[in-house]
Amino acid sequence: MTLKTKAPSKQSSHSKESTLLIKEAEFQASLFPAIEFPNAYRKAVQVVHSIPLNNMTLVLRKMLNAWIKNAIDTEVDKDGYWSINIAEMAGDLGFDSNNHQHLREAAMELMKIVFEFDVLATQHPTPKLRKLTDWDAATLFPNVKQRSGKLLYQINHELQERVLQPKMYAMIDLNVIGRFKRSSSVAIYEHCVRFVNIGATTPVHWTVLRSIVLGRAEVPKTYEEFKHFNNKILRPSMVEMNSLADINVEMKLTKEGRQVTTVQFIVSRKNDVARQDVDPSNEEAMKAIGELVLFGLSQSEAKKMLKAYPAQRVLAALAYTKDRIANKNASVIENPAAYLRNAVAMGYGANEDLALAGEMHDAQIKHEPSPPASPSGAGEKSSSQNKLVDAFMMKQAKEAQAYFNEFGPAEQDALAERYNAQQDIRGFRIKKGKPFKGAQSAFLRWLAQDTWGQPSTEDFLEFAQTMF
Predict the structure, then answer these.
(1) Where does this protein have compositionally biased stretches of type Low complexity (predicted)?
(2) pTM for this model (two decimals)
């Protein structure tokens, strides 16, 4: 009897091809810098500025964030429970032990904690905005259970809308708080990061801040005086934050006589020139930012461009780019934003000579012949060209990584989503948290091309000269 072999389906063939591509990408990924994508969510300010009535350990603070983010990202079941994989949750918490019993005990402890919400509302410096009577206190997670390697939990029904669809929130990145080794660092980071775009937190009485950080349980005598609370809690936490977080924090104290009354933090985002404000009195710069945003650039990139180049140069390049796009006799510009960036860098439109250079560059791209096929015996030359291309792509990937790091979490998320939308191979799509290295290198290649356009012959020649 002859057995007929079943022909492989197109789907399985495509799957094998995808697997091979992914394996090849993993092999090549070591050439590229590692990239950490934000794992952020919107945390309601009522929860950020809450006081736990019991002590919140480091694990409890991280677990609370993991549960809320998971509830925002996933669907609730018919019984009102959200589920989270214990092993995956342990990774988010930076918990590298297999002792899941400790996590279960922490889950039960978190279930019992009562929170007094939105305590900063009672501290507002403006009397009209100060809430003296309104306050809420409740447990966040009334029920918790374990089933088949997962923790199932409910969120207090009275608080669900405020927690899952907050109108006012702070962007909390689980990757950042996962680096901290002190519970107080998590609490102070969350307190500060909400105000990063304002530049300073609301002044708060130091005893209220102490309750936010340590809980409102019986205060140890050690922390009854500000100097001890400062030396043991605030200063070490600020050192850890400034070392490991994505923000810089400085402390500002207000005193009555010799006694400290309120604490305020001056907050700025690290390595983010784009978020620095352009002088609002510079009307030409403000106009240029508005024009760039209308053209399609993000506000942060527009600000960064105006920090690097004079407004006249940017506006001239923008006008030149718009004229170039409107020219129906010229080749189609597939990536207008990338073309504009190049036009600004080269100074196109700033004067007639540079405009002519731009037109010559366009014509060269339009009529540039395809590279001829390598003749037989030209393997050595082809190998050298491949090495040059690989080196150039490595350099561009590092530049793309640096460019990516200049954005805030929301903008990084938007870039990742836009990349995923055009990526057909599922394995190469970016997953929040820790995408595999092949996806990272594919993303950096895409970001480089999306930002600066397809590299030209001149780009490779200019790069080659730097290698000798």
Answers:
(1) 375-384
(2) 0.57
